[in-house]
Amino acid sequence: MSGSSASAPHAVTYSYLGPVGTFTWAALRQVPEAAGQVWRSVNNVGEALDDVVTGRSIGAVIAIENSVEGGVSATQDALANIPGLRITGEYLVPVDFVLVARPGTTLADVRVIAAHPVAYAQCHLWLDARLPEHEHLPATSNVSAAAQLLADNPIADAAVAPPGIEKEHAVAVLAEHIGDNPNAVTRFVLVTSSTTIPPRTGADKTSVIVELPTDQPGALVEMLEQFATRGVNLSLLESRPIGDELGRYRFVIDLDGHVLDERVADALLGLKRFSPKVLFLGSYPRADKVAVTVTSRYDDEVFIDARDWLRGLISGEPDEP
Ligand SMILES: O=C(O)C(=O)Cc1ccccc1
């Protein structure tokens, strides 16, 4: 295992939803700069982000989206509400689940199942079909779900956990591959408080959170036009309630490209002019490293040429016939 749990003064620390063995831990193992640093296991996303805000940790790895359930709302809301956070990297972890219990337990004995809510949501078809009368006991993580089976006076009979858990804890596997989608993948992000934007790689993503002007018919279309008219593709668009009154939503958006791409910068300027609140969460390399391609009319040079043309007109140069 890379990383260490021992704390040293002024050590570079990364926070993650622990303990060791969670999918979040697997994501942190993909962060090159975290290798050999201190890894701090925390119980929830709020705690991880608080570590970053207070400077206790230099970064936190948190789950932001999965291919079955969509955006992780706790993460989206935390990023919208806690100022000064930036996403600097993304990492993909395939997620597969097993059902475990104390040795000797059979499937027929299982009534209460400990599971992280996101994991539970991804296994509910399997659980509903095999154990229709089960009860869900929420756990703080996939590994803590299994660990609590071995606590004194455990409440749960079984737990949803990552494969391999039986090597770390004295539990027995009752069933494998219980996830409802065999290709499920969770996307994690590295969040820091540094405002330095990672360099442009050509295979980048930008995350923003946008509020719409109130009571303006067509505002959503106008927001989307900012991207469409600059050839910017969106890879995530979700609405979350702002929370102050019914009917007010903010939009969580991931788009293809980097803020240093002219078309992305221009789309952000358009958004800023129209929206009462735009929160830039960061531009960072895509986990899949797939280069972003655009048709030539959205290339950087086209925007630069247009700006030069306008500057020329303003400074008195004759327009070309
Ligand atoms: O990181 C983990 O293992 C967690 O418990 C959170 C989680 C839950 C379900 C899918 C991915 C991450």
UniProtKB/TrEMBL annotation:
The protein, known as: Prephenate dehydratase
Query: Which InterPro entries has this protein been placed in?
Result: ACT-like_dom_sf, ACT_dom, Chor_mutase/pphenate_deHydtase, Preph_deHydtase
ACT domain: residues covered:
208-286
Presence of the UniProt keyword Lyase in the record: yes
At the top level, the lineage of the source is Bacteria
Give the organism, scientific name.
Answer: Lysinimonas soli
Instruction: Report domain Prephenate dehydratase positions.
Output: 13-193
Mind listing the UniProt keywords for this protein, alphabetically?
Answer: Amino-acid biosynthesis, Aromatic amino acid biosynthesis, Lyase, Phenylalanine biosynthesis
Catalyzed reactions per annotation: prephenate + H(+) = 3-phenylpyruvate + CO2 + H2O
- Which SUPFAM superfamilies does the annotation name? ACT-like (SSF55021), Periplasmic binding protein-like II (SSF53850)
Output one GO MF annotation: prephenate dehydratase activity
PANTHER family in the record: PREPHENATE DEHYDRATASE P PROTEIN (PTHR21022), PREPHENATE DEHYDRATASE-RELATED (PTHR21022:SF19)
Under Gene3D superfamilies, the record lists:
3.30.70.260, Periplasmic binding protein-like II (3.40.190.10)
Instruction: Identify the coding gene.
Output: pheA
Known EC number(s)? 4.2.1.51
Pathway recorded for this protein: Amino-acid biosynthesis; L-phenylalanine biosynthesis; phenylpyruvate from prephenate: step 1/1
